[in-house]
TrEMBL record:
The keyword Plastid does not apply. This is TRAP transporter permease. Pfam families: DctM. Residues 162-623 form the TRAP C4-dicarboxylate transport system permease DctM subunit domain. Keywords: Cell inner membrane, Cell membrane, Membrane, Transmembrane, Transmembrane helix, Transport. Residues 9-21 have a biased composition (Basic and acidic residues). Residues 1-25 are annotated as: Disordered. The chain crosses the membrane at residues 53-72, 84-100, 121-141, 176-199, 219-242, 342-364, 384-407, 414-432, 457-477, 484-503, 515-533, 540-567, 573-593, 605-622, 628-652, 664-692. It is a multi-pass membrane protein.
Amino acid sequence: MAGTTKTGVTKDDIETQKAESETATVELTEAEQRALEEKFDSEVRFRPLARPVLYASSLALFVLACFHYYTAGFGILQQTTHRGIHLAFTLGLIFAVFSFSGRPQTEPHRSSVLNPLGLPLIDWAFLIAGVVSSLYVPWIFNELAFRVGNPSFLDVTMGTVLIISLLEATRRAMGWPLPFIAILFMAYALFGQSMPGILVHPGASWTSLVNHLYLTSQGIYGTALGVIATYVFHFVLFGVLATRIGLGQLFIDLASALAGRYAGGPAKVSVLSSAMLGSISGSSIANTVTTGSLTIPAMIRIGYQRHFAAAVEAASSTGGQITPPVMGAVAFLMIEYLEVPLTTILTAAIVPAFMHFFGVLMQVHMEAKRLGLRGLTKEELPDAWAVFKKDWITVFPLIVLVAVLLSGRTPYSAAFWGITSCIAVMVVQNITRLPFSQALRGVAQDVFDGFVLGAKYSLSVTAAAALVGVVIGVVTLTGVGFKIVYLVTATAGGWAESVIAFVPFDLFTVQSLTLLFTLIMTAIVCILMGCGIPTTANYLIMIAIAAPILNALGVEPIVAHFFVFYYGVLADVTPPVALAAYAAAGIAGANAFKAGNTAFRLSMGKVLVPFVFVFSPSLLIVTQGFTWPLFILAVSGAMLGITALSAAFSGYLTQPLLAWERALLAVSALLFVAPDLITTLVAAAICTPVLIRALIGMRKVNTV
């Protein structure tokens, strides 16, 4: 057996870390970052295009961005028209920029009879079909009231074409899982009379199904597509422009200056920079690649193992989707489904987001102490004041965005002024470094490139939202949601009664155990769904199916929505399809599955906190029955629980922990997060022997 140092690290560990440090990964170039992002994120896997189609698609993307920028500032069009135009642009562009195979391409197709202008005939066919069928409903809008329930042959044909186009567009942009789910739901609607037990229903004809999905606001043109076209597109565009003007780099530099000097500095920089970058970007993989290209090599250089360095970045970057004010697309979906102001959603998100980053930070810190890792030296650190003095202007658009949001204006109005501020910063940046004539061209190029890229990044989420409309439409048409509520609650209730019959003491009630088992089942389904489909689509499906289950058990709607949202996000770091962790492992040169498992462990805060705010809604601040004592109890319990669990996982507190100490801390962690004063006191009593030994050990170290 290898010798062990005072910190509990074996000599073999030290030799391994030295070897890894000596061969640490170098920082990635921009092209390498883009290639890595495309490898793991099918949503940005754009194919190279022949020049005519490239110019045409770039112009269409720019026009789409200009359309949304104008409507955000000067008024949204009639609902169906606005959604139809957005969907038509999106489908046309998807069939241009995403290949049929879905695999990365290095060269564009050559122009030929089968590939006019370098685009295969099948892509031209889908492109035209998608555009025409999307615009058909807005075109007949004035007659729509007379056609719903009595569609013509042309209505059904166009609806069929759009459904097929959506299935194919989503498959290209995201793969098979979401289209497969949509096909299953449509099959359920068509063959309901053949379903078993409580799931049986009369069944719908293809005509009635298309009528519901295509001609009503309960399907493809429903709320999900409306939110993407009205809110999300604008914030995606803002995030791209804010990154282009240097706000993301400013966040990384400031995080380095503030956190880099402490033990395990680069890992703490990763956590802090990801939290800051998450405020403008909701993409886990993009955040991982952007910050990880800098932080992962630095973590490896100071002694972190490669898989751990990758896991830290992945766990931190997934927090971007839960960090206000952008929160990916979900914050804007919540305001529509819950019918509450955006400020309510953002307020509710603050404490849980903090808990996630706090949990990652605690494990990072304990791992650094266990391994005896250093922070960055003064020479390796940027000067915070110098960094801010140089690039302070890049913060201006974010300040404007938040100020307009807090003023009570609409989210798209806030995005309009945020985008306008980004353009203003581009003007200042170009004028201060270039002659006036060149500066104008530079601004025009920056705006064009930013608008094109922002529109490109919105394509996949639009297709997903429209296709999820099919799933939601089937739920409303068949009433399957109510049947699932009954099945799940009955199952959970049966388990609860069995447990209470087995336990000799009255520790739980049937109601609380039923809710607990329902939450566990819901969490598992959310994670499994998230392994194949993106967070936005996962959230939309789960609120249609799972949120009513939690509501039936007395959980407030906003709490139920946050619960399914958090567990959907967790899928990005949950093997076997932990895409953010796999992207980070690609940068680190680490075992991807090992990195995914470690990233899941580092995300324990995100695992525990949803259960806390279900049983103690005061954690979300804006819920009914909020009181400061309950809030303080929930926050302190969650922080103590996360700290205890972090120590149990790391095997280190102020000194290496023994097996029995880790077990006591794990048990106390679960009790700490229970929002009850008695259980909190019991948890404190359980971990007291561990704390006493830790304090004695710390005193011995200080006296040596």
